């Protein structure tokens, strides 16, 4: 049984997903992204704001989805980060970034702007313009603050291959007690993954760094992310990961692009 399914989205695509308690215990909606950049792409040093579609991701939409799927535990995460090289992690001053990030995300979670019941925070930076030490200090303390202050009850990190060894694995080692999930993004593998057994082996290697009970297998339904890992290889390999490695779940980046046309 698939325990957890996470969907990364900036719109209300979750409304289109079939959810059944026969196959699923928990459904996580990860909203992409909260960013500390302004509209002109200038870094704001930890002052985070939402960039997902606020007209579609509403308290009413979330409440309706939860009511429709009341036999499954539905949770909402705010994902801070970026895709590609756009708006990378780039603190101007660590101490100020931590203070600003803690205050702005607390306001975002508890304030009236969103009106959502937010359960968790997710960290998904695909590009980091800072040292590993700065990343670990800033993000690690932010996660500590948000969880210790009761702002969120859960926290996750979402590593990619290029950043895993120097940044994310070291971040996990520093604040492992505060991290509930590690959502590894397999679509960002550098080397071509030719078959499901290779994907299975990559997941198995990751369990030497991250506890299996926390390690989700992540993928993307966006065509531009299929260069090194095809959907069929992920699907077949993912089934083996769930069955043989007893992974807690998977995640998919999926948006309703047709609604934008």
UniProtKB/TrEMBL annotation:
<dbReference type="InterPro" id="IPR000677">
    <property type="entry name" value="Chitinase-like"/>
</dbReference>
<dbReference type="InterPro" id="IPR017853">
    <property type="entry name" value="GH"/>
</dbReference>
<protein>
    <submittedName>
        <fullName>Uncharacterized protein</fullName>
    </submittedName>
</protein>
């Amino acid at each position: 049984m698939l325990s957890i399914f996470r969907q990364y989205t900036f719109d209300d695509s979750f409304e289109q997903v079939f959810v059944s308690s026969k196959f699923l215990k928990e459904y996580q909606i990860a909203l992409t992204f909260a960013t500390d950049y302004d509209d002109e792409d200038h870094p704001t040093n930890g002052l985070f704001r939402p960039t997902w579609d606020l007209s579609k991701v509403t308290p009413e939409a979330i409440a309706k989805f939860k009511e429709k799927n009341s036999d499954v535990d539905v949770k909402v995460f705010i994902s801070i980060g970026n895709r590609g090289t756009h708006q990378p992690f780039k603190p101007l001053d660590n101490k100020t970034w931590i203070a600003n990030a803690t205050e702005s995300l607390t306001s975002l979670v508890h304030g009236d702007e969103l009106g959502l019941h937010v359960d968790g925070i997710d960290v998904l930076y695909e590009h980091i313009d800072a040292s590993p030490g700065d990343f670990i200090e800033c993000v690690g303390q932010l996660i500590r603050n948000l969880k210790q202050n009761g702002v969120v009850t859960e926290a996750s990190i979402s590593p990619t291959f290029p950043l895993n060894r120097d940044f994310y694995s070291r971040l996990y080692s520093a604040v492992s007690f505060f991290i509930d999930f590690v959502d590894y993004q397999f679509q960002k593998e550098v080397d071509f993954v030719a078959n499901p057994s290779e994907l299975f082996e990559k997941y198995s290697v990751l369990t030497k760094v991250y506890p299996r009970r926390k390690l989700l297998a992540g993928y993307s339904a966006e065509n531009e992310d299929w260069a090194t890992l095809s959907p069929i290889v992920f699907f077949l390999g993912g089934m083996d990961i769930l069955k043989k490695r007893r992974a807690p779940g998977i995640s998919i980046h999926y948006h309703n692009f047709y609604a934008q046309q």
